[in-house]
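The instructor's notes for this session suggest beginning with a concrete chain rather than abstract definitions. Hand out the sequence below and ask the class to guess, before any prediction is shown, which regions might be ordered.
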Amino acid sequence: MSRIKRLVDKLDLEPHPEGGYFKEMYRSDEKIEGEGEFPAGRSFGTSIYFLLEGTDRSKFHRIKSDEIWHFYEGSSATIHIIHSDGFYETLYLGSDLDSGYQFQHVVPAHSWFGVSVDQPDGYLLAGCTVAPGFDFGDFEMGDAYKLKQAFPEHESIIEKLT
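After discussion, reveal the predicted structure:
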């Protein structure tokens, strides 16, 4: 049995709408009382396992919360971010600290982002922690046409991740 299949089976992962596999591991019992842009009843925080095979992509999407990515095993990955002001940034997630990779990175709330695995024949097992907690009501998949209209200077990466 391949390592990927073992991880999917042992961690009880399911297909994720943006690509790859996931499983929610934590949702805080504590809830927000309804301040700011988050409604009452939102969990303080959530976390998931997230697995991408080498040719999978986490497609451009955005949420209303900060999201922390944690590297667990497999290939390194590149997090592609288009900030709301149009600034494009890449963050390198992995264990090769001497090459500029980090075990954790924060994707700011409201940023468009996607993730690509650096080795096409590899995989990435990561964790994602969201605070305030993730809710699919906040999840917005990127539309290629709208993103290219808003950020024409980033057309090539938008085409790869939508």
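Then share the key points. The chain has a mean pLDDT of 95. The two ends are 31 Å apart (CA to CA).
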